[in-house]
Amino acid sequence: MDAIVVRPARPGDGAGLAQSWLDAGSYYAALAPELFQVPGSEGLVEWVEQRLARPRPPDTIWLVAEVDGQPVGDIHARLDRPMPDAGRQLVREVGQLRVFVTALVVQAAWRRQGIGTRLLEAVESWGRQQGATLISLDTFIGSPLSVPFYELRMGYQRRAIIFQKRL
Question: 144: which of 32, 87, 117, 134 is 20 to 30 A away, CA to CA?
């Protein structure tokens, strides 16, 4: 295996990123089909390519990990600016510049080979360069893959619980 290359996402990455998205959907739908679904595959590559062709919003980053010239995973993140009324809020972090990871997916065939680690480390580095003091994300609590990855491998700590009730 060649080295893992982490670089900005670009047009032409659609097929590899669509496969990562399908693999993530399959993984989570198998864990909790009442919560997750496998995305429709028809037109998925074109949908991803359309997103790749759009200009990136300011304060966002979209990175791809490639191996042997092929995209095998990606990560999306954004900067959240301090709230103007942060001094009146209960949560301290809203007064800080922080990064929020909106998605991290890796093709099933490439999991547990350092791809996710490299992608997340690259976003952490980007956040530091932007002046961020905190990074956060959410993941499905029932995932035997992602929860240990974030806690044990990457050193993230649980901070909140999201409650949900079907109506």
Answer: 134
For the full predicted model, state whether its pTM sits above 0.90. Answer: yes
Domain hosting 113: range is: 5-153
What CATH number is associated with residue 94?
3.40.630.30
What is each CA distance from 122 to 10, 34, 35, 65, 87, in whole angstroms? 16, 33, 29, 10, 31
